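B., you asked whether I could sanity-check this one before it goes into the benchmark set. Here's the sequence:
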Amino acid sequence: MIGQYPTPVERLDKLGLWVKRDDLTSPVYGGNKVRKLERLIPDAIERGKKRIVTVGAVGSHHVLATAVFGARAGLGVEAAIVPQRRTEHVERNVRADLAAGATLRPARTYVGAGISALLHGGRDAYLVPMGGSNVVGSLGYVDAAFELAKQIETGLLPEPDAIVVTLGSGGTAAGLTAGVALAGMKTIVIGVVVASPVWFVTGWTRRLVRRVYAAAGGRDPRALEGRLQIVTSELGRGYGEPTDSARRALEIGRENGLSLDLTYTAKCFAGALAYVQNTPNSNVLYWHTLSSAPLDELLENAPPLPRAVERLLRG
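And here's what the prediction gave me:
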């Protein structure tokens, strides 16, 4: 086990919602990717693989988490990375990738990144898709749903009417959706889309829900009906492009002890606040997926960005 569980739940009375603190999955590097790696890394080792090969944006949290925990498990980590808007947060992440020992291969598009990953695969390589969002990785969030069910059973919080979670590569939302159904909860999952194209994100996630449910032992697909609702209103101009509502949510989060980022979690938190406003008297749980672990120690050993990587930072 690479993380620390269960992660806390807390009530933000002023905002009328609950928070699941998956920013605290690990003091080394937290966030939602840790739960996926709980499943992915043992699977890679069991299959006799020596390297993890994956893809992501230049500031990808998935790439960073994989670099940190893959190295700790004795696995090499290689990632094909694509352009993203330059922010301090993105720059820190990619510098931390290098400090953790990841090999980064710049690509112009996700198609090019996928081809690069395939070309650099091999018998010793364990291929992981963007965000760690395949069936194996998503099962980590089935585990998380059962963890939440135990917290509800012990009285830490009421059963949520809705869980609001970021929907990027789809694995977190898919795992939670399958998990709440398997755990016998009435809760629905609200996936706030932060990546494009929307048609692909939506279609992929809905298919992944069904596959994860079946892989986890689900026998009645009717249990999934209406479980996942997808919200696209917070995406704005696209992935990594900040919105006014996300900026407001970032400030509200800071005032209430949550550190958010404009690419993922601020957009999701904006969606959670809107859902609370539009559904009064509901029990709403915002699932916080951004690591709050400090990167300072890792960044002390970070080398300068290679020119090819530097060119991926837009704006």
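One thing to flag: Residues 15 and 261 are 19 Å apart (CA to CA). Otherwise nothing jumped out at me.
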